[in-house]
Amino acid sequence: MKRSIDKWYKTKKLLLDRNLRSYIPNTKRMNKKTLHSMLKQYGMVYVKPNTGSQGRGVIRVDRVNGRKGTSWKYQSGSSVHRFSSYRNAYRSLHKAADGKPYLIQKGIRMLRYRSRPFDFRIVVQKKPRSPWKVTGMAARLAHPAKIVTNGSQGGTIYSVSGLLSKKLKPRSVRRLTRQMEQMGLQTAARLHRTFPKLWEIGLDVAVDTSLHPWILEVNSKPDPCPFAQLNDPSMLREMIRYGKANGRTYKLHCKKSHKGGF
After folding, report:
1. Which residues contact 253 (CB under 8 A, 6 or more apart)?
2. 69-125 per-position pLDDT tens digit
3. What fold does the segment set 112-259 form as a domain?
4. For the chain, what is the radius of gyration of the CA atoms?
């Protein structure tokens, strides 16, 4: 099976599942008209390459209503660009996309810790002739100067319970963790119907300020490096066992992510 499946195709397949539909942010192919419409509707969106991983190429775009009228800005990496006209903003974005197909996704106002957004990586795997299992869950806190949480972009890795407990009561932590696990299993099962050779996924989940979880992205070859930063090595060991059962080997040269602690 081709390991890199484009994001638009995966999104369409997940939308076929009525149990997953409410977890998928409104997503469109990017063009000038659609971006303008979604910015008017949501105020903030993320645009991302239709292919690729590790947070590369992800851009946050904002429509700003001020006393002097409407302006636009976008952040790519740690650089922020501001514009007084939508025409100029889109021209700059289109240039940044370098001719590659991009998607627009409704912006999720994520939970934050120390003013930095965080999300979650859920790894779901299966061995030959065995059921799907959640083998790893980790929380990822964005680098202070960036919009993406990926460890490869300088994010800090925490245990799910450790970071959530800074924001929520224990009962809410348990409920949300179970909900994300179930989302991971349902997503794997749905994609496996289309891609029968698929045996692992990495699900990126954002939780908004109303505690509603959203599926940001699904990776068909998840990076194990975030789990090397956790104090408990059991998840990483299990992920590697499942990988070996399917012929995957891992090179754990994990230098960009940071280990979180309280």
Report:
1. none
2. 999 999 988 899 999 999 999 999 999 888 889 999 999 999 999 999 999 999 999
3. D-amino Acid Aminotransferase; Chain A, domain 1 (3.30.470)
4. 18
